[in-house]
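Batch manifest, entry 17 of 40.
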Amino acid sequence: MIFPIGDDQVKGGYTPWFSYSFILLNITVFLYKISLNIEGQYAFDYYFGAVPLEITHGRHLFTLVTSMFVHGGWGHIIGNMLFLWVFADNIEATVGNLKFLVFYLVGGIVAAYSHAYFNLESDIPMVGASGALSAVMGAYLVMFPTSRVKLLFIVFPFRISAWIFLGIWIVQQWSYGNASRASEVSDGVAWWAHIGGFAIGILFGVLFRITGHLKNVELELDNELEPEQA
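Output type: structure tokens
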């Protein structure tokens, strides 16, 4: 598996309080959930997760927000929090705290609706921050395409341009999403939440660009990512 573990950082800017707070909130909710017995964990997911059948009938709409902060297991939350840690702070540092908060929540809501639209009759709850994080990555692609993302493959770190990494990522999501529609068996991943979130993230990224948020932004290169001199 390949995981992002760092990137070039915005120099100065706003302190990304919401990015860090969301990480803490997600971890806190997850630790509480796993403290419950199995029946309690299932009930927790069904109450706070976004169930497409309920959403499309206008019920339990609060779960469009709460589902962003509930995760299924250790791998689920660790992976999502890594992406949140790497990609969200640059956006918040650039656009400001309150604008980032609105962007993140709207991105997650649109992602959940996208999943519900393609799974109208599903009574399986969708949980996780992946939809909102897909919006983050869509905006990041537009705002910081030349930023270098540090990836870890097993124990070997390497770097790659953000546009390459995120471009490959969304192509994978699109492929898996179309494959899931063609199959009658769910693989347990809300691919269309990822796609919908990424799309709205791109729109926000364009909006942030044309409103001048990137005018005075400067990326500070991570020294650990600098090539060695021969």
